[in-house]
Structure formats: C-alpha cells, structure tokens
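A reminder from the course coordinator: this example appears on the midterm review sheet, so study it carefully.

Given structure:
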C-alpha cells in the first residue's frame, strides 16, 4: 500500500467511528456525521466549527453558503477543494446552528487530533474562534487573525469564519488579505525560509479573555 492509500484508509476508519459515535448529545439530533473531506496527504488543512443545515444533510463539510464563500477564497489564490483537507472541531450539527458547547468540543476532540496526526499537514488554517482556541487559547479573533505561529512544527494560521464575513461584509478585505498572507508564508516555507510567525512569539502573551463575537 502506498503512503497515500494507507493514510486514506486510516482516515476512512476514523470516519467510520464518527459515523456511529454517541459520545455527546449531538448524536441525537444529527442527520449525518460530517467527518471532513479532502486528500489524505493534504499540505493545507482548514478547520471550521461545526456542520450546518446543508452539511448535516449531505455529510460533507462547507457545502452551504459559507462553503461557497470558502470556495471563492480558495480560487482567489489558485487553490481548489481538491488541494486541501477541510474538517471541523465538531462533527455533528448543533441544533439550530447554535455554538458548540465545551462538553461537545471535548467529546469530539480526539477525532480531529487523530485526523491531524494522519494527514500531518504543514499548515493548519483555523476558521473562527472555536478552532482557533485549539492553538491560540484565550486569543481574540479580531486581534489574532492573520498572525500565525508554529505549533508542533506546523504553521497555524487563524482566520475569521466565512459565516462571520457573510454576516459582516466589512471583514471581506481582511479575510482576503489573510488568505494571501498564508499563501505567501507557505511559499516562503517551501523555499526553505522561516515562516513569519516568530514575530508574534516575542510579544507578551495575551491574558485569557472571554471569546468575543466570532
Ligand atoms: N461552518 C462550519 O464551521 N463548518 C462547516 O462544515 C460548515 C459551515
Ligand atoms: Fe461524537 Fe463528535 Fe458527533 Fe459528539 S459531535 S456525537 S463527539 S462525532
């Protein structure tokens, strides 16, 4: 088996576990689980929040309006869905698209940890505050977005959630600028240079604060 086939088989096994998971109450209201989608050896992984209505219907991540916006954003830097793996911190839809609760995030965490370990992406782009909190605990997204750091040898790059940009189109230019910035950082990484995140590590850490709107 090739390395890619082996990774795909391991991801498939995780998705199968998710399909019958009952570790949190979201299992009672879901239509389908949404384990994530994309190449098993993707260099870039996006992590969103949780499935919405359309994702829950189709079992696929980011297929509703947020997904259309994400597709546009990818296309604007020459990428397509085939180039990236897209997952979520929670694999089942919260009722009425409410925020995931801490107990649900905790219950679901192990699946995403294992998916990341299999895919082993060089870059993780977090979309919104819930996936950002994995790598930037206590950070506020209005300040942290677009400022990457290295975690476990990966470039972790926080961005707004597409739904936030759809709600507030004024965020569009910043989102676009962040997408360009992450592509530049990836190119520099590939060219053998240091990614530009070390700037951030000299700053004093932000005190833990209540997560703000996004
Ligand atoms: N929003 C998310 O965070 N994830 C999805 O899969 C769809 C919308
Ligand atoms: Fe299991 Fe995660 Fe779905 Fe909860 S959200 S039932 S932990 S797969």
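Designed residues:
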């Amino acid at each position: 088996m090739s390395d890619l086939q082996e990774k795909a088989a391991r991801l498939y096994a995780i998705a199968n576990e998710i399909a019958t998971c009952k570790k949190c109450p979201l299992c009672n209201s879901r239509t389908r689980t949404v384990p994530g989608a994309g190449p098993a050896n993707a260099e870039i992984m996006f992590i969103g929040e949780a499935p919405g209505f359309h994702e829950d219907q189709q079992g696929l991540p980011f297929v509703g309006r947020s997904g259309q916006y994400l597709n546009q954003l990818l296309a604007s830097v020459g990428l397509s869905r085939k180039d990236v793996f897209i997952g979520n911190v929670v694999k089942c839809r919260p009722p009425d698209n409410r925020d995931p609760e801490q107990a649900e995030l905790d219950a679901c965490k192990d699946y995403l940890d294992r998916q990341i370990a299999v895919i082993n992406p060089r870059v993780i782009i977090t979309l919104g505050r819930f996936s950002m909190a994995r790598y930037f605990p206590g950070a506020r997204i209005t300040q942290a977005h677009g400022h990457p750091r290295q975690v476990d040898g990966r470039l972790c790059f926080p961005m707004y959630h597409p739904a936030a940009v759809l709600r507030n189109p004024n965020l569009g230019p910043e989102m676009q600028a962040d997408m360009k910035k992450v592509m530049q950082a990836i190119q520099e990484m590939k060219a053998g240079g240091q990614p530009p995140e070390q700037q951030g590590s000299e700053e004093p850490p932000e005190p833990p604060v209540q997560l703000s709107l996004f």
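Residues 199-214 have pLDDT under 50 and may be disordered. The chain is about 45% helix and 10% strand.
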